[in-house]
Amino acid sequence: METVIGFTAIAVALLIGLGALGVGIGMGLLGGRFLEGAARQPELAPMLQTKMFIVVALLDAVAMIGVGIALFFAFANPFIGQLQAVS
Amino acid sequence: MASEGGHGPQTSGEYIQHHLQNLQVCQAESGEWVWNQCAGNPMGINVDSMFWSVLLGLTFVLLFRSAAKKTSNAKPGKFQALVEIIVEFVDGSVKDTFHGKSSLIAPLGLTIFVWVFLMNLMDLVPVDWIPMMAGAAGVPYMKVVPTADVNVTFGMSIAVFFLIIFYTIKYKGIGGFIRELTLHPIAPPTKGAGLIAAPFIIAFNFLLESVALLAKPVSLSLRLFGNMFAGELIFILIALLGVWQLPLHFGWAVFHVLIVTLQAFIFMMLTIVYLSLAAESH
Q: So what's the architecture of A2-76 in CATH?
């Protein structure tokens, strides 16, 4: 039982951490390109900002799915229920 | 808030579990309908999500309908101006993306945007208020954010999925639909020695394209669910901190307003993009 809980904790940390890592790098690149584009052509900045928000939400999606699954395992771990049903 | 005796939870874990539990009704083995004993029953109904989503949908419909009936060109009121801003925003987004003619896509986009926005907005109501009032009325569990319930988001995205298939078949025919699934992205050779490889290429195309097609509703719903569930959970966790919760609640709520609006906008934009991809011909 302790091993299951311990490994679940590590899995939750990996899910959230690796998702955050990927999204951090991606958003940094995205923001940098947006600023470059806005600096070259300031009149396009509002349109670029709308498109940037669309891509931000798409990037967030996979990270958020990971966070949702990780929090589910943190607070409503189904493995514990299975173990208790067996024992 | 952890020491509130309203619904009698003892520990912080129980408090969290209590706030993440839906009000469920289902048919037990004996055939009678029971409340809240539905763990693992796939035919259980989350009554609180149904109630709040239908209530917010009716609110949206009645409010916008009353604004439409009372339009006045001479003296537009503030609410009429707000409704016009929202409608023009959705209309602009649809016109940018969908280059055909459809009388469904723009009203669908408006419904999705405002309805999802209102449902997400329920996440900003302080965590304990509505469940405490419900508890005083004898209702044991109450989750007020319908979009933090995976059933609601999957319901919406499965409806969008059926619309995608319907639009593909309507604009391209069933032959076009099957051709899209089997002849993209690799065009199989139709004559010569390469004909032997054609069935394998078609199978490979079908695998890729069906995964891409199924990924659309799944990602649409899980994106919205993940954002709202994580937001709600962080509100619950902050509520466990005692008096220090107030500045943290405020900070997170301000950030969450952006997430709420952004997720509603993204659901609408992706619906419009998927439907326009289904309707356009290459």
A: Up-down Bundle (1.20)
The encoded tokens of residue B14 equal 């129980």
Beta bridge partners of B34: B26
Closest CA to B23 of B2, B58, B52: B52
- In angstroms and rounded to an integer, the radius of gyration of the C-alpha atoms of chain B is 23
Q: Residue B230: which of A57, A58, A67 has the nearest Cβ?
A: A67
Please give, rounded to a whole number of angstroms, the shortest distance from the CA of A42 to a CA of chain B.
21
**What three-state secondary structure class fits B3?**
coil
Whether pLDDT at B187 is above 70: yes
User: Would you state the pLDDT for residue B8?
Assistant: 58
CA angle at residue B121 from B257 to B20, to 5 degrees?
105
* Number of A–B residue contacts, CB under 8 Å: 45
Task: Report CA-CA distances (Å) from B204 to B180, B194, B199, B267.
Answer: 13, 15, 9, 30
Asked casually if ipTM beats, i.e. exceeds, 0.95, the reply is: no
3-state secondary structure of B34: strand
Contact B226, B13 (CB under 8 A): no
